[in-house]
Design goal:
Blueprint lengths: L1 H29 L18 E8 L5 H8 L9 E8 L3 H8 L4 E3 L8 H10 L7 E4 L5 E2 L3 H9 L5 E8 L5 H23 L11 E4 H7 L8 H11 L4 E11 L5 H22 L3 H7 L2 H10 L4 H18 L1 H21 L7 H4 L2 H14 L18
Parallel strand pairs: 1-2, 1-4, 2-3, 6-8
Antiparallel strand pairs: 4-7, 5-8, 6-7
Helix pairs in contact: 1-6, 1-12, 1-13, 9-11, 9-15, 12-13
Length: 387
Amino acid sequence: MWTLIHIIDWVLWLFMAPSVLYVFFYAIISLFHRKKKPYPTEGIRQSSFLILFPAYKEDTVIVHSVQECLKQTYPQELYHVGVISDHMQEDTNEQLRQLPITLFTPQFEKSSKAKALHYAIEHTENSYDYIVILDADNVVLPDFLEQVNASCQQGYKAIQCHRCAKNSDNDVAVLDGVSEEINNTIFRKAHNTIGISSALIGSGMCFPYNWFKEHVKMLETAVEDRELEILLMKQHIFIKYEEHIPVYDEKVSNPENFQRQRLRWMTGQVQSLLLMLPYLPKAVMTGNIHYIDKTMQQALIPRSILLVLTCFFAILMTFISFPWSIKWWVLFLVICLSIYIAIPRKMRNSALFGKIFSTVKLVWLMLKNILKMDLKSKEFLHTTHGK
Protein backbone atom coordinates (compact mmCIF):
# COMPACT_ATOMS: atom_id res chain seq x y z
CA MET A 1 0.00 0.00 0.00
CA TRP A 2 2.73 2.47 1.01
CA THR A 3 4.75 1.53 -2.05
CA LEU A 4 1.80 2.41 -4.29
CA ILE A 5 1.30 5.75 -2.53
CA HIS A 6 5.01 6.50 -2.91
CA ILE A 7 4.89 5.74 -6.64
CA ILE A 8 1.81 7.94 -7.15
CA ASP A 9 3.51 10.67 -5.13
CA TRP A 10 6.57 10.66 -7.41
CA VAL A 11 4.51 10.42 -10.60
CA LEU A 12 2.50 13.52 -9.61
CA TRP A 13 5.65 15.40 -8.61
CA LEU A 14 7.43 14.54 -11.86
CA PHE A 15 4.31 15.59 -13.78
CA MET A 16 4.30 19.07 -12.22
CA ALA A 17 8.05 19.72 -11.83
CA PRO A 18 8.83 20.51 -15.52
CA SER A 19 6.19 23.25 -15.60
CA VAL A 20 7.55 24.78 -12.39
CA LEU A 21 11.15 24.66 -13.66
CA TYR A 22 10.18 26.24 -17.01
CA VAL A 23 8.51 29.17 -15.26
CA PHE A 24 11.39 29.48 -12.78
CA PHE A 25 14.01 29.52 -15.55
CA TYR A 26 12.36 32.40 -17.43
CA ALA A 27 11.57 34.27 -14.22
CA ILE A 28 15.30 34.26 -13.42
CA ILE A 29 16.13 35.29 -17.01
CA SER A 30 13.78 38.27 -16.66
CA LEU A 31 16.05 39.67 -13.94
CA PHE A 32 18.71 40.22 -16.62
CA HIS A 33 16.38 42.17 -18.91
CA ARG A 34 17.43 45.75 -19.55
CA LYS A 35 14.75 48.18 -20.63
CA LYS A 36 15.66 49.78 -23.95
CA LYS A 37 14.85 53.26 -25.17
CA PRO A 38 12.05 53.57 -27.76
CA TYR A 39 13.21 53.61 -31.36
CA PRO A 40 13.50 57.01 -33.07
CA THR A 41 10.24 57.98 -34.80
CA GLU A 42 11.57 60.85 -36.89
CA GLY A 43 13.51 60.63 -40.12
CA ILE A 44 12.30 57.09 -40.92
CA ARG A 45 10.03 55.60 -43.55
CA GLN A 46 6.34 55.86 -42.72
CA SER A 47 4.50 52.68 -43.63
CA SER A 48 0.77 52.29 -44.22
CA PHE A 49 -1.38 50.39 -41.73
CA LEU A 50 -4.75 48.68 -41.60
CA ILE A 51 -6.09 48.45 -38.04
CA LEU A 52 -8.78 45.83 -37.53
CA PHE A 53 -11.18 45.54 -34.58
CA PRO A 54 -13.06 42.19 -34.57
CA ALA A 55 -16.14 42.96 -32.45
CA TYR A 56 -18.60 40.25 -31.43
CA LYS A 57 -21.50 41.66 -29.35
CA GLU A 58 -19.18 44.43 -28.09
CA ASP A 59 -21.73 47.26 -28.14
CA THR A 60 -20.63 48.71 -24.78
CA VAL A 61 -16.96 49.26 -25.63
CA ILE A 62 -16.31 49.32 -29.37
CA VAL A 63 -17.27 52.92 -30.16
CA HIS A 64 -15.01 54.34 -27.46
CA SER A 65 -12.10 52.10 -28.51
CA VAL A 66 -12.37 53.21 -32.14
CA GLN A 67 -12.71 56.88 -31.22
CA GLU A 68 -9.52 56.67 -29.15
CA CYS A 69 -7.71 54.85 -31.95
CA LEU A 70 -8.62 57.59 -34.42
CA LYS A 71 -6.71 60.15 -32.33
CA GLN A 72 -3.39 58.96 -33.78
CA THR A 73 -0.68 61.55 -34.40
CA TYR A 74 0.40 59.40 -37.36
CA PRO A 75 -0.51 60.82 -40.80
CA GLN A 76 -4.20 60.11 -41.41
CA GLU A 77 -3.63 59.12 -45.03
CA LEU A 78 -1.30 56.31 -43.92
CA TYR A 79 -3.68 54.34 -41.73
CA HIS A 80 -7.23 53.08 -41.92
CA VAL A 81 -9.46 51.52 -39.27
CA GLY A 82 -11.87 48.66 -39.93
CA VAL A 83 -14.44 47.21 -37.54
CA ILE A 84 -15.95 43.77 -38.08
CA SER A 85 -19.39 44.13 -36.49
CA ASP A 86 -20.54 40.62 -35.64
CA HIS A 87 -24.00 40.40 -34.06
CA MET A 88 -23.89 43.97 -32.76
CA GLN A 89 -26.93 46.21 -32.41
CA GLU A 90 -27.95 48.50 -35.24
CA ASP A 91 -27.62 51.56 -32.99
CA THR A 92 -23.97 50.68 -32.43
CA ASN A 93 -23.41 50.15 -36.16
CA GLU A 94 -24.99 53.52 -36.88
CA GLN A 95 -22.62 55.25 -34.43
CA LEU A 96 -19.68 53.51 -36.11
CA ARG A 97 -20.86 54.61 -39.56
CA GLN A 98 -20.48 58.22 -38.45
CA LEU A 99 -16.74 57.65 -37.98
CA PRO A 100 -14.09 57.67 -40.76
CA ILE A 101 -13.73 53.89 -40.79
CA THR A 102 -14.83 50.86 -42.79
CA LEU A 103 -17.62 48.88 -41.14
CA PHE A 104 -17.85 45.21 -42.07
CA THR A 105 -21.13 43.47 -41.19
CA PRO A 106 -20.82 39.72 -41.81
CA GLN A 107 -23.66 37.37 -40.95
CA PHE A 108 -21.98 34.35 -39.39
CA GLU A 109 -24.07 31.43 -38.20
CA LYS A 110 -21.16 30.40 -35.98
CA SER A 111 -18.86 33.29 -35.17
CA SER A 112 -15.13 33.31 -34.49
CA LYS A 113 -12.38 35.88 -34.46
CA ALA A 114 -10.55 34.03 -37.24
CA LYS A 115 -13.65 34.16 -39.45
CA ALA A 116 -14.08 37.88 -38.77
CA LEU A 117 -10.48 38.67 -39.70
CA HIS A 118 -10.68 36.53 -42.85
CA TYR A 119 -13.92 38.27 -43.88
CA ALA A 120 -12.38 41.73 -43.45
CA ILE A 121 -9.30 40.85 -45.49
CA GLU A 122 -11.42 39.33 -48.27
CA HIS A 123 -13.51 42.51 -48.46
CA THR A 124 -10.61 44.98 -48.33
CA GLU A 125 -9.68 46.32 -51.74
CA ASN A 126 -6.72 48.50 -50.81
CA SER A 127 -3.34 47.13 -49.89
CA TYR A 128 -1.20 48.17 -46.93
CA ASP A 129 2.28 47.60 -45.61
CA TYR A 130 1.19 46.24 -42.24
CA ILE A 131 -1.89 45.10 -40.36
CA VAL A 132 -2.58 45.67 -36.66
CA ILE A 133 -5.08 43.53 -34.74
CA LEU A 134 -6.84 45.03 -31.72
CA ASP A 135 -9.66 43.68 -29.58
CA ALA A 136 -12.88 45.64 -29.28
CA ASP A 137 -12.07 46.71 -25.70
CA ASN A 138 -8.49 47.79 -26.47
CA VAL A 139 -7.49 51.44 -26.05
CA VAL A 140 -4.23 52.79 -27.53
CA LEU A 141 -2.36 56.06 -27.06
CA PRO A 142 -2.12 58.76 -29.77
CA ASP A 143 1.50 57.82 -30.58
CA PHE A 144 0.69 54.11 -30.91
CA LEU A 145 1.21 53.88 -34.67
CA GLU A 146 4.32 56.06 -34.54
CA GLN A 147 5.89 53.58 -32.11
CA VAL A 148 4.69 50.51 -34.04
CA ASN A 149 6.02 51.94 -37.30
CA ALA A 150 9.39 52.65 -35.67
CA SER A 151 9.55 49.01 -34.61
CA CYS A 152 8.61 47.84 -38.11
CA GLN A 153 11.42 49.94 -39.57
CA GLN A 154 13.86 48.03 -37.36
CA GLY A 155 13.09 45.03 -39.56
CA TYR A 156 10.73 43.10 -37.28
CA LYS A 157 8.03 41.18 -39.18
CA ALA A 158 5.92 40.17 -36.19
CA ILE A 159 5.35 42.48 -33.24
CA GLN A 160 3.53 41.96 -29.97
CA CYS A 161 2.79 45.13 -28.02
CA HIS A 162 2.53 45.38 -24.23
CA ARG A 163 -1.05 44.55 -23.33
CA CYS A 164 -1.88 45.82 -19.85
CA ALA A 165 -4.94 46.35 -17.67
CA LYS A 166 -7.09 49.46 -18.01
CA ASN A 167 -9.35 48.57 -15.05
CA SER A 168 -8.84 47.36 -11.49
CA ASP A 169 -12.34 47.66 -10.10
CA ASN A 170 -12.38 44.42 -8.06
CA ASP A 171 -10.30 41.43 -6.98
CA VAL A 172 -10.97 39.45 -10.16
CA ALA A 173 -9.87 42.32 -12.43
CA VAL A 174 -6.76 43.00 -10.33
CA LEU A 175 -5.68 39.35 -10.33
CA ASP A 176 -6.41 39.05 -14.05
CA GLY A 177 -4.25 42.12 -14.68
CA VAL A 178 -1.42 40.75 -12.55
CA SER A 179 -1.64 37.42 -14.37
CA GLU A 180 -1.30 39.28 -17.69
CA GLU A 181 1.84 41.04 -16.44
CA ILE A 182 3.34 37.75 -15.22
CA ASN A 183 2.75 36.36 -18.71
CA ASN A 184 4.39 39.44 -20.19
CA THR A 185 7.45 38.89 -18.00
CA ILE A 186 7.86 35.16 -18.55
CA PHE A 187 6.56 34.48 -22.05
CA ARG A 188 7.55 37.75 -23.72
CA LYS A 189 10.16 39.89 -22.01
CA ALA A 190 12.32 37.01 -20.71
CA HIS A 191 12.08 35.12 -23.99
CA ASN A 192 13.28 38.10 -26.04
CA THR A 193 16.07 38.65 -23.51
CA ILE A 194 17.74 35.41 -24.62
CA GLY A 195 16.77 35.74 -28.29
CA ILE A 196 13.66 33.54 -28.33
CA SER A 197 10.39 34.68 -29.89
CA SER A 198 7.76 36.27 -27.70
CA ALA A 199 4.37 34.66 -27.31
CA LEU A 200 1.42 36.35 -29.00
CA ILE A 201 -1.59 37.48 -26.96
CA GLY A 202 -4.35 37.85 -29.53
CA SER A 203 -4.43 41.64 -29.71
CA GLY A 204 -1.88 44.42 -30.00
CA MET A 205 -0.27 42.36 -32.77
CA CYS A 206 1.29 43.64 -35.99
CA PHE A 207 2.26 41.69 -39.12
CA PRO A 208 3.16 42.47 -42.74
CA TYR A 209 -0.16 42.86 -44.52
CA ASN A 210 0.61 40.53 -47.41
CA TRP A 211 1.86 37.80 -45.05
CA PHE A 212 -1.30 38.02 -42.97
CA LYS A 213 -3.53 38.09 -46.05
CA GLU A 214 -1.92 34.87 -47.27
CA HIS A 215 -2.16 33.04 -43.94
CA VAL A 216 -5.40 34.25 -42.29
CA LYS A 217 -7.41 31.68 -44.28
CA MET A 218 -5.43 28.92 -42.55
CA LEU A 219 -6.76 29.83 -39.09
CA GLU A 220 -9.35 27.30 -37.96
CA THR A 221 -9.60 27.20 -34.15
CA ALA A 222 -10.90 29.63 -31.52
CA VAL A 223 -7.30 30.50 -30.55
CA GLU A 224 -6.05 32.13 -33.72
CA ASP A 225 -3.08 33.69 -31.93
CA ARG A 226 -1.65 30.23 -31.20
CA GLU A 227 -2.17 29.22 -34.82
CA LEU A 228 -0.38 32.38 -35.95
CA GLU A 229 2.51 31.49 -33.64
CA ILE A 230 2.76 28.05 -35.24
CA LEU A 231 2.89 29.55 -38.74
CA LEU A 232 5.50 32.13 -37.71
CA MET A 233 7.69 29.60 -35.92
CA LYS A 234 7.63 27.20 -38.88
CA GLN A 235 8.85 30.04 -41.08
CA HIS A 236 11.50 31.15 -38.56
CA ILE A 237 9.90 34.60 -38.20
CA PHE A 238 10.95 36.20 -34.92
CA ILE A 239 8.22 37.75 -32.72
CA LYS A 240 9.41 40.98 -31.09
CA TYR A 241 7.87 42.08 -27.81
CA GLU A 242 7.65 45.86 -27.54
CA GLU A 243 7.28 46.58 -23.84
CA HIS A 244 7.16 50.34 -24.39
CA ILE A 245 4.04 50.25 -26.62
CA PRO A 246 1.01 49.83 -24.34
CA VAL A 247 -2.35 48.46 -25.40
CA TYR A 248 -4.88 48.91 -22.60
CA ASP A 249 -7.14 45.92 -22.22
CA GLU A 250 -10.27 45.48 -20.10
CA LYS A 251 -9.80 42.72 -17.54
CA VAL A 252 -12.66 40.41 -16.61
CA SER A 253 -14.50 41.61 -13.51
CA ASN A 254 -16.60 38.66 -12.42
CA PRO A 255 -15.94 34.95 -11.76
CA GLU A 256 -18.33 33.76 -14.49
CA ASN A 257 -16.51 35.68 -17.22
CA PHE A 258 -13.18 34.58 -15.76
CA GLN A 259 -14.21 30.92 -15.91
CA ARG A 260 -15.52 31.26 -19.46
CA GLN A 261 -12.37 33.04 -20.63
CA ARG A 262 -10.06 30.49 -19.02
CA LEU A 263 -12.08 27.61 -20.47
CA ARG A 264 -11.44 29.07 -23.93
CA TRP A 265 -7.75 29.51 -23.17
CA MET A 266 -7.25 26.07 -21.60
CA THR A 267 -9.08 24.32 -24.43
CA GLY A 268 -7.11 26.31 -26.98
CA GLN A 269 -3.85 25.49 -25.24
CA VAL A 270 -4.45 21.75 -25.52
CA GLN A 271 -5.69 22.11 -29.10
CA SER A 272 -2.55 24.06 -29.97
CA LEU A 273 -0.33 21.42 -28.37
CA LEU A 274 -1.98 18.72 -30.47
CA LEU A 275 -1.47 20.85 -33.59
CA MET A 276 2.20 21.42 -32.80
CA LEU A 277 3.28 17.89 -31.85
CA PRO A 278 3.35 16.43 -35.40
CA TYR A 279 5.92 19.05 -36.53
CA LEU A 280 8.01 18.80 -33.35
CA PRO A 281 10.40 16.04 -34.58
CA LYS A 282 11.29 18.15 -37.63
CA ALA A 283 11.77 21.20 -35.40
CA VAL A 284 14.15 19.19 -33.22
CA MET A 285 16.05 17.87 -36.24
CA THR A 286 16.43 21.36 -37.73
CA GLY A 287 17.21 23.06 -34.42
CA ASN A 288 14.13 25.29 -34.49
CA ILE A 289 14.44 26.35 -30.85
CA HIS A 290 11.57 28.83 -31.16
CA TYR A 291 9.12 26.11 -32.22
CA ILE A 292 10.41 23.70 -29.57
CA ASP A 293 9.99 26.36 -26.88
CA LYS A 294 6.44 27.24 -27.96
CA THR A 295 5.52 23.53 -27.94
CA MET A 296 6.83 23.24 -24.38
CA GLN A 297 4.86 26.34 -23.48
CA GLN A 298 1.60 24.77 -24.63
CA ALA A 299 2.33 21.73 -22.45
CA LEU A 300 2.64 23.78 -19.25
CA ILE A 301 0.22 23.40 -16.36
CA PRO A 302 -1.32 26.82 -15.57
CA ARG A 303 0.65 28.63 -12.84
CA SER A 304 -2.26 29.21 -10.49
CA ILE A 305 -3.15 25.51 -10.59
CA LEU A 306 0.49 24.65 -9.89
CA LEU A 307 0.50 27.05 -6.95
CA VAL A 308 -2.53 25.49 -5.29
CA LEU A 309 -1.75 21.84 -6.09
CA THR A 310 1.89 21.95 -4.96
CA CYS A 311 0.76 23.55 -1.70
CA PHE A 312 -1.99 20.95 -1.28
CA PHE A 313 0.34 17.98 -1.85
CA ALA A 314 3.04 19.51 0.36
CA ILE A 315 0.59 19.72 3.27
CA LEU A 316 -0.91 16.29 2.53
CA MET A 317 2.48 14.58 2.34
CA THR A 318 3.59 16.30 5.54
CA PHE A 319 0.89 14.32 7.37
CA ILE A 320 1.67 11.09 5.51
CA SER A 321 5.48 11.22 5.60
CA PHE A 322 7.48 14.38 6.20
CA PRO A 323 10.54 13.19 4.19
CA TRP A 324 8.20 12.64 1.21
CA SER A 325 6.84 16.16 1.59
CA ILE A 326 10.21 17.94 1.28
CA LYS A 327 10.30 17.78 -2.51
CA TRP A 328 6.75 19.20 -2.59
CA TRP A 329 7.66 22.09 -0.31
CA VAL A 330 10.65 22.85 -2.53
CA LEU A 331 8.43 22.83 -5.62
CA PHE A 332 5.88 25.06 -3.90
CA LEU A 333 8.53 27.56 -2.82
CA VAL A 334 10.07 27.62 -6.32
CA ILE A 335 6.74 28.42 -8.01
CA CYS A 336 6.02 31.08 -5.35
CA LEU A 337 9.41 32.67 -5.93
CA SER A 338 8.95 32.53 -9.70
CA ILE A 339 5.58 34.28 -9.54
CA TYR A 340 6.92 36.89 -7.14
CA ILE A 341 9.86 37.69 -9.44
CA ALA A 342 7.58 37.90 -12.49
CA ILE A 343 5.20 40.40 -10.87
CA PRO A 344 6.29 43.97 -11.76
CA ARG A 345 7.64 45.79 -8.73
CA LYS A 346 4.98 48.49 -8.90
CA MET A 347 2.32 45.79 -8.39
CA ARG A 348 3.95 44.11 -5.39
CA ASN A 349 2.02 45.42 -2.41
CA SER A 350 0.12 44.19 0.63
CA ALA A 351 -3.22 44.78 -1.10
CA LEU A 352 -2.28 42.35 -3.88
CA PHE A 353 -1.09 39.59 -1.55
CA GLY A 354 -4.23 40.08 0.53
CA LYS A 355 -6.21 38.74 -2.42
CA ILE A 356 -4.80 35.22 -2.00
CA PHE A 357 -8.20 33.78 -1.06
CA SER A 358 -9.71 35.12 -4.29
CA THR A 359 -6.92 33.29 -6.12
CA VAL A 360 -7.98 29.98 -4.56
CA LYS A 361 -11.57 30.53 -5.70
CA LEU A 362 -10.47 31.33 -9.26
CA VAL A 363 -8.21 28.26 -9.34
CA TRP A 364 -11.17 26.12 -8.32
CA LEU A 365 -13.08 27.50 -11.32
CA MET A 366 -10.13 26.63 -13.57
CA LEU A 367 -10.01 23.07 -12.21
CA LYS A 368 -13.74 22.70 -12.93
CA ASN A 369 -13.00 23.81 -16.51
CA ILE A 370 -10.97 20.62 -17.06
CA LEU A 371 -14.23 18.67 -16.98
CA LYS A 372 -15.82 21.05 -19.50
CA MET A 373 -13.08 21.00 -22.12
CA ASP A 374 -14.12 19.85 -25.59
CA LEU A 375 -10.96 19.45 -27.65
CA LYS A 376 -12.92 18.93 -30.87
CA SER A 377 -14.90 22.13 -30.48
CA LYS A 378 -14.10 25.16 -32.63
CA GLU A 379 -16.85 27.21 -30.99
CA PHE A 380 -15.98 30.78 -30.06
CA LEU A 381 -16.57 31.45 -26.34
CA HIS A 382 -17.24 35.14 -25.95
CA THR A 383 -15.97 37.16 -22.98
CA THR A 384 -18.34 40.02 -22.14
CA HIS A 385 -16.81 43.49 -21.74
CA GLY A 386 -18.15 46.72 -20.32
CA LYS A 387 -20.39 47.38 -17.36
